[in-house]
Amino acid sequence: MESTDIGGVIHVKAVGVARHLDTQCRLIIPSEFRKMFQLRSNTLVEIIGTNEGLLVRPAQSKE
C-alpha cells in the first residue's frame, strides 16, 4: 500500500474500504490506516468536506 522514496517521502496508493457508521454516526478507522498514518488514541484530526466527499487527516499544528 505504501512505499518510501530516497527523500523519505511516503507514497500511498489510493485504497478504499467501506464501513458502516454506528448508531451515533461514528466511524471506526481501520487499523491498517491507523498504523500507516500513525493515528493513536486522542490524535487530533481535521475533517474537511470536499467535492469528492470527506477528507480525514491529522490536524496541522498551529505554531
Note the beta-strand portion.
25-35%
What Rg do the Cα atoms give? 14 Å
Strand tally: 4
Mean pLDDT rating: 84
Kindly report how far apart the N and C termini lie. Answer: 31 Å
Which outline best applies?
globular
Instruction: Say what the CATH topology is.
Output: Pemi-like Protein 1, Chain: D
pLDDT < 50 runs, ≥5 residues: none
Architecture, according to CATH?
Ribbon
CATH C-level class is: Mainly Beta
- What kind of sheet is the major sheet? 2 strands, antiparallel
Number of continuous helical runs: 1
Give the assembly state of these chains: single chain
Approximate helicity band = under 10%
- Count of distinct structural domains: 1
Order of secondary-structure elements: EEHEE
In terms of structural class, how would the helical and strand content be classed? mainly beta
Spatial order of the strands in the main sheet? 1-2
Detailed description of the structure:
The chain has one domain (2-58): Pemi-like Protein 1, Chain: D, CATH 2.10.260.10. By secondary structure, it is mainly beta. The model has no long low-confidence stretch (mean pLDDT 84). It has one helix at residues 31-36; strands at 2-4, 10-12, 45-49, 54-58. It contains one helix and four strands. The strands form two sheets. Strands 1-2 form a two-stranded antiparallel ribbon. Strand 1 (2-4) and strand 2 (10-12) form a beta hairpin. The longest helix is centred in the middle third of the chain and has 6 residues, at 31-36. Helix content is 10%, strand content 25%.
